[in-house]
Design a protein that fits this description.
The complex is a heterodimer of chains A (369) and B (401). Chain A is an all-alpha fold. Helix content of chain A is 66%, strand content 0%. In chain A, α2 packs antiparallel against α3, α2 runs antiparallel to α9 and α7 runs antiparallel to α9. The two termini of chain A are 17 Å apart. In chain B, β3 and β4 form a beta hairpin. With 401 residues, chain B is mainly α. Chain B has one domain. Chain B has a two-stranded antiparallel sheet with strand order 1-2. In chain B, strands 3-4 form a two-stranded antiparallel ribbon. In chain B, 51% of the residues are buried. Classes of the chains: A mainly alpha (369), B mainly alpha (401). At the A-B interface, α1 of A face β3, β4, α13 and α14 of B.
């Protein structure tokens, strides 16, 4: 990808150079506006109107999840299981709004890795239930436990098992509470840390690699590429393997992978366009920044092209089965079409946007060993 | 072209009942297949076995139940007193008389009169294995921090490091790219002193086979070089189809090279040179043989250097992003590739692109920015080292990364 970007850059600058040569008369002071954008104002809006309320809401959703898990542990009946499933889905949806905010406190606590690494390792998860009951559960801070905690682990137990399973395995119900509490504790920690760090985060309004705008843009683009595009669609659709891998979808047991994808799309779109978390207002975000610089794509504003990517991706997703596992098993080509649509956004964000904002991409594609 | 190749092969089959010299125009066959009287003369089972032993060793180095004794036995395929052992899961490897350790830093060109360096290098590997067992495996269930061993996240993958941030399994396996594969291939089997040893030329020209074998000695030496790169392929005659997946050593990294537009011809460059050089031996054209050997030496050396630069630059990016786990993994791989540089060979000089002393100085630089090794490494250390390595080769840092 780096290479792709570099070659595209070379191509673009080559094209610009020949244009400049052919059309010297068009050079009279036109072109992108100088970067007078107020990064501080943008950071304040994104932090106070999106990041902080998103984490506040996420924290309260995970509190509801803990309450439902405790209730289920106590009663272990169909009603409490149904409620638990609802609360799990609600929290999983709220998660989509903070998943790409892996910056500052979230990054320090490996929030995303601990909350949503899938597919989950069901073998180790089952042995964890036993060891937890024996008083020596796993240390969830260890990277080797990332794939047996968080939503995917809860999805396996809460959605993948029925009431009879829990009645005959009370340790499993207790373990569901343990998983939920761990998620909630993380959410509380990260939320509290944001309250403390918000001022410093907003004040770090420069353009160095470590400046808040640079990090935020990188984290957003990274998430769009690796989690939204590859994790939710590309990997299970078989883009990176010789055969489709439908068992690698998000929410494998709950079967609502499309819903989670659409929620993540909504969150990415809102953040890109500077919408407040509650959706009621709008302020400076990446799209406005690009428009301020008059950054254009092939035939319009780059921000409008990104809007088209979101719209097309949403429309294509709505044509898929609500369970991507079923969709990919039946006809993975339609999932590949969705992947291609989302991928166009990677080029816009990672190549065009980052270049226009003069932000260096700070991540590399791991070479996989 | 194809019928022409075929008729060439036919002529060899019909008329060269011995290893006698052919015409001046040597034609490489389409695949790495060479026969005499309808019997294949190609053999490199020893290389295939060592590559497989390395694969098992790599996994065992990360198994918390591994003991130093078992790992040492996998490395040497014998016990401390030289007795037979069965450390592998693959019975064929246990039955094998081959070993990795005996071929580490053991080439004719570099080490036949430098037993001291050879012993020091073997001792490095012994020490890395010992450190993996003493300083990493007991701490797999702890969180690593500066000066403290344990696991640390590289994305969702746990990496197991010592207090300095090093993964010794990576030092061993990546270091073997140089100490085993390059050294044996470039500095031993492709070296004229080995190819032309004893009566090899005479035997080749008179078709004298090695006793009990179907090949002449010189052919076999060349095949052993080939085997260190392609010996893990299921189709050894046309190995490029499975390139990258046939071992954990240079085959894997040649596979990485061709994914990069700057180096995409490396697979065919090397394969064609090995094929044509082998055909040149059959035809008795030793000048052509050595020209092809030089191509292989240059390209194989470049792979090691490109990977070293790549991991240094990747480490710098991860450092900037604060991803220490990813950085440690990159730099542990990089450490092994830098170490491997001393086994490269510049065909113009016959010497490595970086001497043993230079390599050791670089590795010291890598580890001495602070008391806690890679925890304290500075970006400038990494990028300067990458620049220094690239400067001695025909590629740029930009191309390698």
């Amino acid at each position: 990808m780096r290479r792709e970007r570099r070659k595209l850059t070379m191509y673009l600058s080559g094209a610009l150079a020949s244009l400049a040569f052919l059309l010297p008369s068009c050079e009279n002071g036109e072109g992108p506006a100088a970067d007078t954008w107020d990064r501080g104002a943008m950071l304040e809006h994104l932090t106070d109107d999106f990041i902080v309320p998103a984490f506040e809401n996420y924290k309260s959703q995970t509190a509801d999840l803990v309450a439902a898990a405790t209730w289920f542990e106590d009663f272990t009946d169909q009603q409490s299981l149904d409620r638990l499933r609802e609360e799990l889905e609600d929290a999983y949806l709220a998660w989509q709004w903070v998943s790409f905010l892996e910056i500052g406190p979230g990054e320090a606590k490996a929030l995303r890795f601990r909350s949503n690494t899938f597919p989950t390792d069901t073998t180790n998860l089952k042995s964890d239930i036993t060891s937890f009951a024996a008083g020596s559960g796993p240390n969830f801070q260890l990277p080797s436990t990332f794939d047996r905690q968080g939503y995917p682990a809860l999805d396996f137990l809460v959605e993948g098992k029925d009431l009879d399973y829990f009645i005959s395995n009370p340790d499993a119900a207790a373990y569901v509470s343990n998983l939920a509490i761990s998620l909630h504790t993380l959410a509380v920690d990260v939320d509290a840390a944001w309250e403390n760090e918000r001022i410093g985060f907003i004040a770090n309004n420069g353009s160095a690699a470590s400046a808040s705008t640079n990090k935020l843009a990188n984290d957003y683009v990274f998430h769009y590429e690796k989690e939204f595009r590859a994790g939710k669609v590309g990997i299970p659709a078989g883009v990176f393997s010789s055969v489709p891998l439908p068992e690698k979808v998000e929410s494998l047991y709950g079967g609502y992978s499309r819903k989670l994808f659409l929620e993540a799309l909504k969150a990415h779109r809102a953040f890109f366009f500077g919408k407040s978390y509650d959706g009621l207002s709008e302020g400076p975000g990446f799209a406005a920044y690009l428009d301020h610089l008059n950054v254009r794509g092939v035939d319009g504003l780059l921000s409008e092209e990104m809007q088209e990517v979101f719209t097309e991706s949403e429309n294509l997703a709505l044509e898929l089965n609500e369970n991507f596992e079923v969709q990919i098993s039946d006809d993975h080509i339609k999932a590949l079409e969705l992947y291609d649509a989302v991928q166009r956004g990677v080029v816009i964000l990672k190549v065009d946007m980052m270049q226009a904002l003069n932000i260096k991409v700070d991540y590399i594609d791991a070479d996989g060993d | 072209m194809k019928p022409y190749y075929l008729s060439g092969a036919l002529i060899i089959a019909l008329f060269s009942a011995s290893c006698e010299r052919g015409g001046n125009n040597v034609e490489a066959p389409a695949t790495y297949e060479f026969e005499r009287n309808g019997v294949s003369t190609v053999s490199y089972t020893g290389q295939t076995e060592r590559l497989a032993m390395g694969g098992e060793l790599g996994s065992a180095l990360l198994d918390p139940t591994s003991t130093e004794v078992r790992l040492d036995e996998m490395f040497a395929n014998e016990d401390a007193s030289g007795g037979d052992v069965d450390p592998f899961t693959d019975a064929a490897l246990n039955a094998s008389s081959k070993s990795i350790r005996s071929k580490v830093a053991a080439s004719a060109a570099y080490f036949s009169s430098n037993a001291t360096a050879s012993a020091q290098i073997k001792a490095d590997f012994d020490q890395w294995i010992a450190l993996q067992v003493s300083d990493i495996l007991p701490f797999v269930d702890s969180l690593a921090s500066a000066g403290k061993p344990g696991q640390i996240a590289d994305g969702t993958t746990p990496r197991y490091v010592d207090g300095l941030g090093l993964e010794y399994d990576q030092l061993v396996i990546k270091g073997l790219n140089g100490a085993l594969v390059l050294d044996q291939m470039l500095n031993n089997y492709l070296d004229p002193s080995v190819l032309d040893a004893g009566t090899n030329r005479e035997d080749q020209e008179n078709g004298v086979l090695v006793e009990g074998k179907d090949y002449c000695m010189m052919e076999h030496k060349w095949d052993e070089a080939y085997g260190y790169l392609f010996g893990g392929a299921s189709d050894g005659a046309s190995p490029l189809g499975s390139l990258g997946g046939d071992d954990v050593f240079m085959n894997k990294y040649l596979g990485r090279m061709v994914n990069d537009a700057d180096f995409e011809s490396f697979d065919t460059d090397i394969f064609n040179a090995l094929k044509l050089g082998r055909a040149a031996i059959v035809e008795g054209d030793y000048e052509l043989r050595d020209e092809q050997a030089d191509i292989v030496k240059k390209r194989m050396s470049e792979i090691v250097a490109v990977r070293a630069v790549y991991y240094l630059e990747a480490g710098a990016v991860e450092l900037a992003a604060g991803n220490y786990g990813s950085m440690f993994h990159d730099l542990s791989e990089g450490y092994g590739f830098i170490y491997s540089l001393m086994f490269t060979q510049n065909p113009e000089t016959g010497a490595p692109y970086f001497s043993k002393a230079e390599v050791e100085a670089m590795l010291e630089d890598l580890m001495d920015d602070g008391a806690n090794g890679l925890w304290d490494v500075e970006a400038s250390t990494l990028t300067m080292m990458a620049d220094d390595i690239a400067a001695r080769f025909d590629f740029t840092v930009e191309q390698a990364f």
